[in-house]
Amino acid sequence: VQLQASGGGLVQAGGSLRLSCAASGSIFKINNMAWYRQPPGKERELVAGITSGGSTDYHDSVKGRFTISRDSAKNTGYLQMNSLKTEDTAVYYCNARGLYYRDSYHIPGFNSWGQGTQLTVSS
């Protein structure tokens, strides 16, 4: 299963941006989708996650500003980011875990990552 992330760019502090993550391949079901980020010189961290049932979880630093959502029919996830701060500057990665069709008899799990998209928030 392949993930294609898009939507990053340069935005001023206080602005908004929406990231998208489209999954493709022989997908049986996507259980969880998530967004991670890696700020310059720091480790990758979980920003937000969403289950197949719609339950969400957020890093404390983005609560109230970011909203994760998904369109299961399109196998696509989104991260709406509002009130952006300079500290949100990072490379953002999408992640998806679920099941895929290997063949008629096997539906194994997958854990896929997108290629990363850069978000730069200027002051």
Polypeptide structure, described:
By secondary structure, this protein is mainly beta. The protein is built from no helices and eleven strands. The strands form two sheets. Strands 2, 4, 5, 6, 9, 10 and 11 form a seven-stranded mixed sheet that branches. Strands 1-3-8-7 form a four-stranded antiparallel sheet, with no helix packed on it. The radius of gyration is 15 Å and the shape is elongated. The model has no long low-confidence stretch (mean pLDDT 97).
Structural class: mainly beta
The coarse silhouette is elongated
Largest sheet at a glance? Answer: 7 strands, mixed
The mean pLDDT is: 97
Which band does the percent of strand residues land in?
A: over 45%
Question: Percent of residues in helical segments?
Answer: under 10%
Please outline what is shown here:
The protein has no helices and eleven strands. The chain is mostly beta strands.
Write the layout of secondary structure elements.
Blueprint: E1 2-6, E2 9-12, E3 17-24, E4 27-38, E5 45-51, E6 56-58, E7 66-71, E8 76-81, E9 90-100, E10 109-113, E11 117-122
Parallel strand pairs: 2-11
Antiparallel strand pairs: 1-3, 3-8, 4-5, 4-9, 5-6, 7-8, 9-10, 9-11
